[in-house]
Amino acid sequence: MNKNLIALIAICCSSLSLPLQAQTGNTRITISNGILEGTTESSGIKTYKGIPFAQPPVGDLRWKEPQPVQNWQGIRKADQFGNKGMQKPVFGDMGFRAGSSSEDCLYLNVWTPAKSSKAHLPVLVYFYGGGLIAGDGSEPRYDGESMANKGIVTLTVNYRLGIFGFFSHPELSKESAHHTSGNYGYMDQLAALKWVKQNIEAFGGDPAKVTIAGESAGSISVFAQMASPLSKGLFAGAIGESGAAIYPTLAPIPQSEGESKGRAFATKMGASSLADLRKIPASDLLDMAYKNNMGGATTTVDGYFFPELPVKTFSEGRQAQVPILVGWNSAEVSYQSILKNAAPTPENYKKALEELYKEKSAEVLKLYPGSTEAEVIQSATALSSDRFIVYSTWKWADSHSKTGNKPVYRYLFSKSKPAMTEEMKGAVPGLAGGFTKGKEITETKKPIVPAGAPHAFEIEYAMGNLRYNKVYAWTAEDQKVSDTMLSYFANFVKTGNPNGAGLPKWPELNTNNQVNYINLDVNTKAEVEKNRARYLFLDKEYSR
Fold first, then answer.
1. Is 0.90 topped by the overall pTM?
2. Catalytic residue among 103, 201, 332, 460
3. CB 220 within 8 A of CB 241
4. In the prediction, which pLDDT does 26 show?
5. Which of 440, 335, 320 is closest to 386 using CA atoms?
6. pLDDT tens digits for 127-166?
7. Taking Cα atoms as reference points, which of 47, 51, 88 lies closest to residue 72?
8. 216, 231, 334, 385: the active-site residue
9. With contact defined as beta carbons under 8 Å apart, do 113 and 151 qualify?
10. Is 139 among the catalytic positions?
11. Helical (H) or strand (E) element with 428
């Protein structure tokens, strides 16, 4: 090539603000463990999928803290999602882009709009829901492209689930340097946050502007990370969609109790040592867990990740002092959680409350009245939802507003479901608000579906991912709500405040001597809390 031409090219390139690789579309970047090569979406967002942030927790690493990733040689392709964690198909609303389930599941995914590693963009790290027993960072509803298009480096993170992520045993505690066992899934999340601190600049992110977020078990995980002293300084804000690790919502139990459960399970399995337990094939272990009442996730106050009950951490102000944005949906679960198979009549409702609350049932009936069928459906839905996950989320916001020394923003998501697509009509309602194709249920068995938003229904709205959900025939109103919610969340990630141009004003939780929240619906608006007496009653019930 002509020397003068080479010199001209050098001068032109040096005058540009972006590095040459951005101009050529090169997606290769160097992180602490080696070189990654991602892909570029049609929107211009670069994606890096299946990045390992810890060694595979297999063999002798089963039920151990996540270990640092080993470096790799050459270029590692980051164009496919990593394995999802070991799990059963328990929720009908989950769809995965990951190819298979495996104990080798500690991978994360990055969507970045940055054109340079010097962009210093805000970062969102999202933990999926699924009761700590299911879920995956590959689920389309958590896709990070829409959030990245708002100028945010966005990540989804895998963590161990069920018996693989939350199993305690006295021998595990004995071999641990911290004399602890369990909470491995939470420590996977912690390892991912440390990875972000170390590597996110390579993707154009700012390690000082990290917000953690999640829904359901993911929200519970955000609460847990806020409570743990091990996570201090790794994030600057937190978003929780329905859930906190406060009784009765997946609160940790004493480690001794967790160890007893683990020991009893090992005895049933005929395993006389940790070596025997670790030799059990992953698929067999998962089956055994479900057959022996160990399919759930048992988190523990282990003296390490959780030095104490996290609700105490919050009540005494030892949690991460960061702004939070938290809330819940208007109809998290059905009234049938209270009434079971009984018709929603005032008589059946009164009887159900008497069975649940005994001598306090009259007080509950005043708080959740039911003099007509319509009122029974409304109140029983509210009580079911409060008992399931609303109370714990309310307690989180209330506690942090008193001891967190940072702004608290609370929401209620109220957008009702639109009509289903023609293809999905006649599908049977599945768990967690999802649907499973199958035999059409008869008219006499169809439950009355209360108006409002069920559990997990807000995820696609918040992340700007309605297009990925083919169950519903989305309307312009749905897109309007999604645009609003996505903008609120993006603003919060950027500034710690959800407010911005063109959005209804979202007041902090406690202003003007009243408790405020934003009601996210077709006509989004700020409202004043009217049901505090309900939450205070439940607070007394659950704090005894």
1. yes
2. 332
3. no
4. 85
5. 335
6. 999 999 999 999 999 999 999 999 999 999 999 999 999 9
7. 51
8. 216
9. yes
10. no
11. strand 428-429
